[in-house]
Design the sequence.
């Protein structure tokens, strides 16, 4: 690809444009590429020939025809195969070599504190590279191939970095109606194989979390950015999941669990603060967590079923009692006669 320094960014943008049903002219694609380049601090391209050369490079590299289609007075461009994307194409030998070189560079950081995730990432990528078409898998990783919205991930990362207010079109699971929200993005967090944007919500005047797979569109807004003093890395050190409860402080959560169930919890703690507090006379175990009680904590405790019982704080115990009562109502058999 011509102008190699920015080629990777242009390739991503061009690929999206060529997949789009409405099609884009060369000048429209040029404008979209420049918006992405500017966002990342790169110099803009000025010549439409750069885009045309990119077309040739993509076509040669991926063996796909890019066809011009007249639309009114304009000529727009598409992949001849409308289902094609460079991100769906098989990985070539040179790509594999480059990935291995990148992995070897990353592995140099494994011994540094905070870079422990490199080991799992390395094995995840290696397992996929080593898999031939007919090979039998020997490992499985917990990923979410159906997750939508990841095309916004790099944009959101950059908008957070440059402190850019945004307008989101967002749809919750609870409503069919689209919401149009103005937000000030602060942080990205993954939980349970999904990514969430943590941002100040102007409509609610508080910090909220937004599932990336529920975001439909993102646009920049010409407003002054509202900053925050919160260190989200430190804040989430005391939180399970992503639910944000302003001004809440972490507190001790105690729950009693059967000894057999604790063996599982001991090998896979609910939170890094988890401790064995004491053993009861009947052999059960009392477990301590130091967290901010939230929705995800309740979900984790509910996953233990009848084998666990919350002891404190009182508010959490009352919430769990209410949930248990509603569940009991759901499973009541109808009265006969």
Sequence:
């Amino acid at each position: 690809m011509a102008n190699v320094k920015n080629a990777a960014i242009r390739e991503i943008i061009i690929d999206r444009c060529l997949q789009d049903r409405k099609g884009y002219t060369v000048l429209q694609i040029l404008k979209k590429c420049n918006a992405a380049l500017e966002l990342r601090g790169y110099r803009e391209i000025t010549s439409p020939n750069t885009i045309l050369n990119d077309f040739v490079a993509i076509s040669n590299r991926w063996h796909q025809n890019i066809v011009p289609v007249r639309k009114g007075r304009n000529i727009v461009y598409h992949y001849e195969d409308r289902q094609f994307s460079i991100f769906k194409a098989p990985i070539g030998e040179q790509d594999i070599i480059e990935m291995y070189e990148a992995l070897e560079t990353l592995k140099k950081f494994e011994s540094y504190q905070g870079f422990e995730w490199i080991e799992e990432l390395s094995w995840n990528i290696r397992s996929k590279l080593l898999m031939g078409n007919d090979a039998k898998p020997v490992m499985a990783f917990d990923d979410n191939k159906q997750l939508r919205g990841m095309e916004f991930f790099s944009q959101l990362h950059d908008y957070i970095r440059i402190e850019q207010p945004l307008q989101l079109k967002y749809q919750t699971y609870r409503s069919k109606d689209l919401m149009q929200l103005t937000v000030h993005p602060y942080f990205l967090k993954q939980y349970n194989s999904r990514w969430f944007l943590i941002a100040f919500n102007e409509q609610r005047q508080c910090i909220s979390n937004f599932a990336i797979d529920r975001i439909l569109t993102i646009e920049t807004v010409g407003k002054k950015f509202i900053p925050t003093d919160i260190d989200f890395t430190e804040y989430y050190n005391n939180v399970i999941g992503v639910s944000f409860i302003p001004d809440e402080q972490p507190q001790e959560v105690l729950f009693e669990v059967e000894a057999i169930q604790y063996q599982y919890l001991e090998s896979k703690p609910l939170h890094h603060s988890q401790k064995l507090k004491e053993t009861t006379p009947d052999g059960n175990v009392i477990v301590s967590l130091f967290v901010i009680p939230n929705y995800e904590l309740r979900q984790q405790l509910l996953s233990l079923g009848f084998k666990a019982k919350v002891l404190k704080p009182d508010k959490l115990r009352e919430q769990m009692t209410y949930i248990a009562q509603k569940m009991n109502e759901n499973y009541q058999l109808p009265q006969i006669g």
Notes: The mean pLDDT is 84. Residues 314-330 form the longest helix (17 residues).
